[in-house]
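Extended Data, panel c. Modelled sequence:
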Amino acid sequence: MGIDIKDLTPETAATITGIVVKEQRKLTKKDRDRRLRNTLMLLINYRRLKLHIQTEPGDDELTMQYEAQNGVVIRFDEISKYHAKSRALIKYLDRILEVYKAECEEGSASEYRRYQVINKLYLGPHKYKLIDLQDIYGKDTSTLNKDKKQAIEDISIMLYGIDALLDKEDCN
C-alpha cells in the first residue's frame, strides 16, 4: 500500500519535496505570526491583566457561605495558580517595557515616539486611538501605525529573544 521511493521519478520526488518545504514554511510562518500576535495580545490586554493581579482570588468566609448556599465547591487554589502566572508575566513584561522605554529615550526622536505610541495605545491610564495621536505628534496615522508595528516587533525581540530574531530573518 505504501510507495517505494525507488519507484519515484526525479520529477515526482522534486514535486513532493517542494510540497513538503512549502508546508514547513507555512508552519514556521504560523509560529512567527502567533508570537507577534501574542505580543500584541499582551499589550491590548495589559490594563486588564494589571487589574486582574490587583484583585484577590477569593475570600474564605465568602467561599464557605457560597458553598453552603449552593452546594458547589469552589477551587480557589486553581484560580490562585492563574493569578501567580499572571503576576509573573506582568512583572516580566513591566521589566521589558522599562528597558524598552529607556532604550527609546536614549535613541532618536522617532524611537522615543514609538514607545510613546505604545504607551498611549496600550499602557497608560487613558486609552487613545491612532487617530487621536495624529494631533499629539503631528504625524499621519500610517506613520504612527508603522511606529506601533516597529515597537511591537522590538518588544517581541525583547520578550522572545533569538526566536523573534530568527522569525524576523525568515520574513526578509
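The chain has a mean pLDDT of 83. This feature is highlighted in the accompanying rendering.
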